[in-house]
Amino acid sequence: MAENSDYFVQSLYLIFSLNDDLMEIISLSLYVSLTALFFATVIGLPIGALLATKKFIGSNVLNIVINAFMGLPPVVAGLFVYMLLSRSGPLGILGILYTPEAMIIAQSILIFPILAALSRQIVEDLNNEYDELFRSLKITASRRIKTLLWESRVSLLTVLLAGLGRAIAEVGAVMIVGGNIEHSTRTMTTSIQMEISKGNLELAMALGIILLFLALGINLMMHFVKNLHQKSQGTYRDE
Amino acid sequence: MSSEIALSLSNVSFSHEKGKALNETTLDFQKGKTTVILGPNGAGKSILLKLCHGLLSPTSGKIVTHEGYSRSAMVFPKPIFLRRTVLQNMIYVLDALDIDAKAKISIAQEALKKFAMEKFADSPAQLLSSGEKQRLSLIRALLLDPDILYLDEPTANLDPHATRLLENMVTESHENKTTIIMATHDLMQAKRIAEQVIFIENGTIMETSNTVNFFTNPKTIQAKNFVEGKLF
Questions:
Q1: What is the pTM for the complete model shown?
Q2: Residue A7: pLDDT above 90?
Q3: Considering only CA atoms, which of A52, A44, A66 is closest in space to residue A145?
């Protein structure tokens, strides 16, 4: 027990002394996960909104596939991206395996189905509510999607946070395509795994604490944004 | 003759999963008139309005909007508003029109002012009472400057005061020569505002006549029973 408390004190020291290695790992993790979130959002939300508002040939199959891929194991995503980017793979020519870019691709693939599927559900519910209004006003399909995405923005923020949570906590895929290379592709999760295996628990604990506080901070921010929105709109019902 | 007509239905039928909702209907709506579609609940009034407005497509038959009557707007029994302020909701409908941003704001503000609703401009639309929402719903429809205005039981959920306020707004908009087609089961309301009455029952138009004739001398037994308040 005494050793554990020592590790805890040392981990706090690492955090508050803004240890260079620690900061580098946190920066890279945030860079990779936020960039992956950006790409998954740009692709996932419009696809989710399209599936919510339009029925087309194959839309049901696409829905089922996206829903199924919400539970995609990270190592499978990692394997897929590895095969894609390895020298003999179709995108091997890019030479980005074991770089942060490869990790961004892997995380984007992992979180895209979450964003698309959850946003489809949210937008579909709202679309049902507004359908007669849109049709009565003869709103174009693209304007309908834009309006629905804007109207459900607070709920969609929660979806983005779920995606970010999945990305930042993920370890299997980034380990496979990033390789956990020091000063290059080492993220918080891959680092925690490695430091534990080395018995270097203070750094692992420091990273764990930061991960927890990041999750807490993001949720607090979300709570604040929701409250602000409820105050301005009064009857917001997307809780 | 067609110059007097805003909208024509020719042998229009509509069916849904529960069966036939509108039977072979041939009708003309006269321009500039206030026509009230009367009938009991489930008679097919709303379906008829939605077909005319283009929200539903007929199973068979043809609906022709005559020249100069292409713009239409509709007010629903339960008004639907975006989760925005009243003014933003008003501006939203103007976004589809080719008007610059400043003009949109002033047009929306003017419309609210005209009907004494300007104090609600910055309120969240979804926080308003049913009566206020329905009046705003009508203002929003009028912002589109419709040639034909469809009103689907707009006062169904309103108290007498709110009903009267809305009816005054309808009468005022009619003075601008807007063709008004309204569905209701409220006989008194039909008496107050209709120039022409269409009586519908079980998806079939039973009677079309001017308001005075309809209430004093209904031609069908069904219309007579309805006017006299007898149960079917």
A1: 0.83
A2: no
A3: A52
> Residue A4: exposed, middle, or buried by beta-carbon count in 10 A (0-12, 13-18, 19+)?
exposed
SS3 label, residue A233: helix
Q: What is the pLDDT of residues B116-153, one digit of tens each?
A: 899 999 999 988 998 899 999 999 999 998 999 999 99
CATH architecture, range B2-227? 3-Layer(aba) Sandwich (3.40)
At residue B170, φ and ψ (nearest 5 deg) are -65, -45
Domain boundaries, chain A: 2-233
Angle between helices A74-85 and A100-136 (to 10 degrees): 110
Distance from CA of A117 to the nearest CA of B (A): 23
B177 — phi, psi (to 5°)? 70, 20
Q: What CA–CA distance (Å, rounded) separates A150 from A153?
A: 5
C-alpha span between A149 and A48 (Å, rounded): 10
For chain A, the distance separating the N- and C-terminal CA atoms, rounded to the nearest angstrom, is: 42
CB contact under 8 A, B124 and A232: yes
Give the strands of the sheet with B34-38, arranged side by side: B72-75, B148-152, B179-184, B34-38, B196-201, B204-210
Mutual angle of helices A100-136 and A141-151, in 10-degree steps: 110
ipTM: 0.85
Task: Tell me, yes or no, if B133 comes closer than 8 A to chain A by beta carbon.
Answer: no
Phi, psi (degrees; rounded to nearest 5) at A182: -60, 140
pLDDT of residue A234: 55
Whether the per-residue pLDDT at A238 is higher than 50: the answer is no
Cα A220 from Cα A217, distance rounded (Å) = 5
Judging by DSSP bridges, how do beta strands B34-38 and B5-16 pair with one another?
unpaired
Q: How far is A167 from chain B (nearest CA, A)?
A: 31
Q: Does domain A2-233 have CATH number 1.20.1420.30?
A: no
Chain A CB contacts of B124 under 8 Å are 232-235
* Section B214-231 average pLDDT: 88
Alpha-carbon gap, residue A16 to B80, rounded angstroms: 53
Q: Which residues of A touch B (CB under 8 A)?
A: 129-130, 132-133, 135-139, 143, 147, 151, 232-236
Taking CB atoms and an 8 Å limit, are A234 and B127 in contact across chains? yes
Distance between A134 CA and the closest CA of chain B, angstroms: 10
Query: Which residue in the set A136, A143, A151 is minimally distant from B82, CB to CB?
Result: A151
Q: Answer positive or negative: Cα dihedral of A20, A22, A26, A31.
A: positive
